[in-house]
C-alpha cells in the first residue's frame, strides 16, 4: 500500500531557486523513492500566473510521487496541514547589497509566514529557511510561531558546507566523497567560518593534509564565504540550482538522518554551545537521527577558530538587535 503523501510547502515558488527545487522534490530527491509528496506553493499575487506555468511543467513530468499540487497567495490556506515548509521566497540580494540591507525588506514576509505556520501547520512541522538573510529570517519566523517548538526552525548553510567540501577536495586533488566532517559556523553571510580544522580528508585531519595555513586563511575561507557574491557577479543573479540542491539535501537529512560517521552543517537555535548566545540561529556541526538535530559537542577550538566564530556570531547578534528594534520579534 502506498504511503500517505507528505505535505511540503514551498514559498517563492515562481522564483529561480524553485524552478529547480520543485522538480527535485517531486522526483523523490527529498524524501526518497517510495514517499509521495503533495506540493503547496505560495507566491505573491502578481507571480501566480508564472507559477501556473511552473505547475504545467510539473504536470508534464508525470512524476509518480507527486500526488497533488496546490498554489495560492494566502499563507494560511497554503500552509494548512503542512508537514515540511521550505521558506525560499524573499527578495534576493543584488550586486552591491549586503544581507543586512535585506532585514527590513524581508521582515514582514517572515513575520506573517511564522504566524500562519503557527496557526495551521501540522503538529510535526519542520521549517527550513533559505530566503536571505536566512538565519535572521528563521529567527523572525520562529519568534512569531510560539506554539511550534523552536527546534523545528532552521536556516540553510548546507550550500556553504557543499562549497567548502568542493574547494578543499579540489585543493587536495581528491574526490568530494573523500571529504567529511566539514563545518560551517555562524551566519550564512560573508562572516561565516568554514572550518577545516575538524574536517577530514580520507579520515585524516584536513588542515594537516593541506598543511598550508596561508591558503586556509587567505583563499579557502574567503572563497567559500564570498561565493554567493562571486556567483551574483558572474551570473547577474544569485545562485539557484546549487541553492535548490542544498535545500533538498538539508531537509532530506533533517527528515531521514545524517549518514553514520559524519555530520553536516545547519543553522539552528543555539542552546549556548560553543559560547553562541542561546536562541540565535547559528550554524553548527550537527548530527540528525529520528528528526532530532544534535549539535556535535566537544570540538576543540583554537584562538583562530574562536575569533572567526565570535565575529560571525556578533553579526547575528547585531541582526537580532536590529529586528528587535524593528519590532519583528
Ligand atoms: P527570486 O527573486 O527568483 O524568487 C523569489 C520569489 O519569492 C519571487 O518569485 C517572489 O515573487 C517570491 N516572493 C516574494 N515575497 C513572497 C511572499 N511574501 N510569499 C511568497 N513568495 C514571495 O529569488 P531566488 O533566486 O529564488 O532566491 C530566493 C531567496 O533565496 C533569496 O532571498 C536569495 O537571496 C536566497 N538564497 C539563499 C541561499 C542560501 O544558501 N541560504 C542561496 C541562494 C539564494
Ligand atoms: C548564496 O550564498 O549564493 C546566496 O545567499 C546569495 C547571496 O545573497 O549571497
TrEMBL record:
EC number: 1.1.1.37
Ranges where the Lactate/malate dehydrogenase N-terminal domain occurs: 6-151
Active site location: 188 (proton acceptor)
GO molecular-function terms, A-Z: L-malate dehydrogenase (NAD+) activity
InterPro entries, per database record: L-lactate/malate_DH, Lactate/malate_DH_C, Lactate/malate_DH_N, Lactate_DH/Glyco_Ohase_4_C, Malate_DH_AS, Malate_DH_type2, NAD(P)-bd_dom_sf
Highest taxon in the source lineage: Bacteria
Family matches, as NCBIfam families: MalateDH-SF1, PRK05442.1
Similarity comment: family membership: Belongs to the LDH/MDH superfamily. MDH type 2 family.
UniProt keywords, alphabetically: NAD, Oxidoreductase, Tricarboxylic acid cycle
Function: Catalyzes the reversible oxidation of malate to oxaloacetate.
Family matches, as CDD domains: MDH_chloroplast-like
Name of the protein: Malate dehydrogenase
Domain Lactate/malate dehydrogenase C-terminal, residue spans: 157-323
Any Gene Ontology biological process: tricarboxylic acid cycle
Binding site for NAD(+): 12-18, 106, 113, 130-132
Reaction it catalyzes: (S)-malate + NAD(+) = oxaloacetate + NADH + H(+)
Residues at which substrate binds: 93, 99, 132, 163
Amino acid at each position: 500500500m502506498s504511503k500517505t503523501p507528505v505535505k511540503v510547502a514551498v514559498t517563492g515558488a515562481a522564483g529561480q531557486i524553485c524552478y529547480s527545487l520543485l522538480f527535485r522534490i517531486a522526483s523523490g530527491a527529498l524524501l526518497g523513492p517510495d514517499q509521495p509528496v503533495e506540493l503547496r506553493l505560495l507566491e505573491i499575487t502578481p507571480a501566480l500566473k508564472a507559477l501556473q506555468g511552473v505547475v504545467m511543467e510539473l504536470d508534464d513530468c508525470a512524476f509518480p510521487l507527486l500526488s497533488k499540487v496546490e498554489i495560492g497567495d494566502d499563507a494560511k490556506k497554503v500552509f494548512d496541514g503542512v508537514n515540511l515548509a521550505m521558506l525560499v521566497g524573499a527578495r534576493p540580494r543584488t550586486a552591491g547589497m549586503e544581507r543586512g540591507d535585506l532585514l527590513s525588506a524581508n521582515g514582514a514576509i517572515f513575520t506573517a509566514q511564522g504566524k500562519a505556520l503557527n496557526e495551521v501547520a501540522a503538529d510535526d512541522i519542520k521549517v527550513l529557511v533559505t530566503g536571505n538573510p536566512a538565519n535572521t529570517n528563521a529567527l523572525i519566523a520562529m519568534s512569531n510561531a510560539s506554539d511550534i517548538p523552536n527546534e523545528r526552525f532552521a536556516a540553510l548553510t548546507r550550500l556553504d558546507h557543499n562549497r567548502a567540501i568542493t574547494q578543499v577536495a579540489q585543493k587536495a586533488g581528491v574526490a568530494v566523497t573523500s571529504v567529511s566532517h566539514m563545518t560551517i559556523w555562524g551566519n550564512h553571510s560573508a562572516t561565516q567560518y568554514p572550518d577545516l580544522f575538524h574536517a577530514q580528508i580520507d579520515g585524516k585531519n584536513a588542515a594537516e593534509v593541506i598543511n598550508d595555513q596561508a591558503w586556509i586563511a587567505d583563499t579557502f575561507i574567503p572563497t567559500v564565504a564570498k561565493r554567493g557574491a562571486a556567483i551574483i557577479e558572474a551570473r547577474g543573479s544569485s545562485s539557484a540550482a546549487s541553492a535548490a540542491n542544498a535545500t533538498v539535501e538539508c531537509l532530506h537529512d533533517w527528515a531521514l538522518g545524517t549518514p553514520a560517521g559524519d555530520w553536516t552543517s545547519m543553522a539552528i537555535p543555539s542552546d549556548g554551545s560553543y559560547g553562541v548566545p542561546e536562541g540565535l540561529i547559528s550554524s553548527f556541526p550537527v548530527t540528525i537521527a529520528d528528526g532530532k538535530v544534535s549539535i556535535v559537542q566537544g570540538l576543540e577550538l583554537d584562538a583562530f577558530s574562536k575569533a572567526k566564530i565570535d565575529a560571525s556570531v556578533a553579526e547575528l547578534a547585531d541582526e537580532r538587535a536590529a529586528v528587535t528594534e524593528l519590532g519583528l520579534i
